């Protein structure tokens, strides 16, 4: 299926510069652009490629100023990144979607499966599980007994929903397992990446609220709660009973101590270690333990000077010892 620059511009509210009849049928990165492909430029680091790309159409921001002529047809929009995402969603929706349960999957007879659900090969759906309409469960996903999956949820390959939380009580012989009697509840429009684990609660529910997007290889421990529309990059780890607010953004490999609360709209940097409750909405945290970026960079600057400061302290010690000797001799 092909679309012209004019058709695309009309759909996203853009302005064409160049050939309105330039046609595309696929997407490409700007540095790998080819004839018949549409691409975009939103990051200034990639500006050099707009002069080299072979793509037929490039989406660009309204304020882009060109230093040289370009061969591609441009469509100027307010936000090129948002617009290409909208186009890719439209393209994906036009492609046929699989539905039904693959013959190699196992679904318990007591599970309740909604309409237009896809369950891929070697997926396991346990007793009493509920899966809402339009959800997609990819190969090798395991959903333990009693867990509830909302509508239009996507769970990618290898994810495990509802395994036991990490609960053990020490005793004289070692550790006694604490039964994990709760479930996992995943609300509507959630996407969970490959090999991510969401543990069932000790009692009650581990809850992933509506619109949450989790990357690959994330650990969500028992009794955790992730607020509406929060996003997390790969390898984030949450200890038990952590509660993350709505609209938070969490960078890769960030870690959260147990039994803390992270306020709505908190931005947590990559490899950040959050060990206490956060202050309030809109806060940005980096470093481990987590701190305000200004404090972090001040501390980082001092840290880099530590070797020189160590040498200076050594020199001062020698001078003090020499002065003591002089005083004693007198």
Give the strand order, joined by hyphens, for the main sheet.
Answer: 8-11-14-17-22-25-28-31-34-36
Return Rg in Å. Answer: 27 Å
Can you give the mean pLDDT? Answer: 95
Q: Total number of β-strand segments? A: 36
Uncertain residue ranges:
none
Largest sheet: 10 strands, parallel
What count of helical segments does DSSP give?
3
Tell me the structural class: alpha/beta
Residue fraction in strands:
25-35%
For the termini, the CA-CA separation is 98 Å
Principal-axes shape call: flat
Write a structural description:
The chain has 330 residues and is of the alpha/beta class. Helices cover 18% and strands 27% of the residues. Strands 8-11-14-17-22-25-28-31-34-36 form a 10-stranded parallel β-sheet, with no helix packed on it. The chain has a 9-stranded parallel β-sheet with strand order 9-12-15-18-23-26-29-32-35, with no helix packed on it. It has an 8-stranded parallel β-sheet with strand order 10-13-16-21-24-27-30-33, with no helix packed on it. A hairpin with a 2-residue loop joins β19 and β20. The longest helix is centred in the C-terminal third of the chain and has 37 residues, at 293-329. The radius of gyration is 27 Å and the shape is flat. The model has no long low-confidence stretch (mean pLDDT 95).
